[in-house]
Amino acid sequence: MKKLLLIFIAVLLVSVSLRGQVSIIPKPNKTEIGEGRFLLNKETTLFTNEQNSSNLTYLRDLLVGVTGFDFTVKKSLPSFNYISLTLVSPFSLPQEGYIMEITTKGIEIKASDRAGIFYGIQSLLQLLPPVVYSGRSTGHEVWSVPVLNIEDSPRFGYRGMMLDVSRTFFDAATVKKYIDWMAFHKINKFHWHLTDDNGWRVEVKKYPKLTELGAWRGDNEVLKPAFGSGSNRYGGFYTQKEIKEIVAYAAERHIEIIPEIDLPGHSKAVTASYPAVGCDGEDKSVSVQGEGQNVWCVGKESNFKMLENIIKEVAALFPSKYFHIGGDEVNYDAWDKCPHCQALMKEKGMVKHEELLNYFVRRMESILEKNGKHMAGWDEILDGGDLKPETRVYAWRSVAKGIESVSKGQPTIMMPGEFCYFDMKQSTIERGHNWAGIVSPEKTYSLDPTGTANLNEEQSKLIVGVQGALWTELLGRPVRFMEYQTYPRLAALSEVGWTQTENKEWEEFYKRLYSAHFERMYQMGIEFRLDPPKAVYNSGVIKVTAPYPWAVVRYTTDESEPQMFSPIYRGEIFTDKAHKFRFATFYKDEIKSVSVQPENSEYTYLKPVTRVETSMTENKKFPVKNVTDYNFATYFRTESKIKAGDHFTYIFEEPVKAKRITVETGIPNITFYGVTDGYVEFSYDGKEYTGKTWFVLNSAVLYPVKEVKSVRITTTAPNDGHILSLQDLKIE
Ligand code: ACM
Ligand code: ZN
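The joint structure predicted for all components is written out below.
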């Protein structure tokens, strides 16, 4: 009897502790948790009233694969032990909404459209053991879900993610995986940035050179090496067959793909393959990204014929009503100096070059309209004049641009860089751009697409939704950095797009993230980002705070990166060599944060009086003296691309006694614009050089044995950016 009572109490405790604990992301708008659980087993059956239901196939494939149960499909609704997917009409919730009722007898998902059923399935997957995402169970899982009622629908109809496949190319299989992960987060639009200066990635049968030439970078290619791809041939493209497959794959996951062909700027891949497309005239200027002659000439009428042909082929591959034509960051200098563009401006009575952009954009609207599409473009398309009322504007430069767009009556996607650009750093110590600021997951989560902008009701209605963007200049390495940059920021953004503001709260989201969603992402196979621990050194003691309650922190004592076998931090460490410690958060063995050195343990490198001799011309804003001040935050930039044989010599006023000199190049923390081809040497007398060491991944380490007088960098090929950046020497 006593034993029974104990069992009863244990069961009660377990059920009480499970109550109220569903951690779905994005958070459903209404959840009521009841008593008990529904257990799936080998007798559980499936039912749907959808015709040719891809939802049923999707769910069944996932469940059969991981549970080993049959999930027989029934022709009528069973009375118990079932999962039913039912389309109902009329229905109380808006489009994409769903109701999920779980009783001890079964699971019922109801919606008025197929997307709603799909989102019900996604919430259901998150109630199951996370291995459901891995396709491989241990055989010991209990496939049960809590009794509950969910009523849920999205805040915005557009919940998107953009991926740049031009700067870094991702093959079809990787894109499909990316789409799978988006679907798990109820993201419903994939904005596919298919072309840019550094690669054209979609097959166009009428213009084969776009991919024969324009999809490849390298020493002997029309596109020069970039972003560390080096002299090897780098690139790739999607055949039309692959595109159609990916579009169908996405559609089964209720994701619409919006293609982007970036025009009329960002078009080096086109002008390098079909030079007649570019402007004529003497123009040596470059775009923001440092590309010369990367703009379509608007004054050459033949270009519009070519654009019609391209759009016709590409538009046919995508069922989306929208087609994105870019329109961003046009280098107007090209047009200003081009006789054809100038003649056209004169003929049309245009005064500003923005008007020429508007002329181009309006013609693209017409071409797209002929192909049954509406135009979409970056917010620069607002600059030169009016647009068709249905043209959709993607506000990336600022929230203010989004406000401007809706004030002009355009349907608008809010995606300001400071919240939504996932190529930005997630903290000061991580890799990434920072021109739009630090975009931590919390920053992303804090966006309110209409509230942040204080829009009135009329304007709010024009905010169609929200989108993240992953530009890929920095994504070439490490291999899975794309996953690190996307998650969990996209999980945070999914809640911005889906969950009503009153149901959103960062602390509570973060708790759901680490207590449940990390494991799901792990099982999905995502190499997601973790917060690093906080380590502080004081009076001979290092104290570490983990980023969440049960995080595992590992450390090293020799400045190396913590690895899966490094010891686990278990309490204060007493040491007089705190600067040699590195700490990192680990999730399982494979996933880890960036490592940190204890605060207050800043190692002081030597700071000898130093001057520089160089063949490189300095950019006045980033002068040579920045690398002799031993402030590691400031750096040197050249004015232009460097040549083979360029050199840069650090000369010490007094010879320096150093055991080790670390030479890092590129912009600090961005590892961008560094020495890709070259070596560094040192000299004991300032004349004879020795210790030649080649740069690997932009850095090199020297080990002199006597006092050093100077250190000289020599480049052996042009670097792969339009400028070079160098840093202070780290002398120990
Ligand atoms: C952009 O980031 N140039 C749209
Ligand atoms: Zn021109």
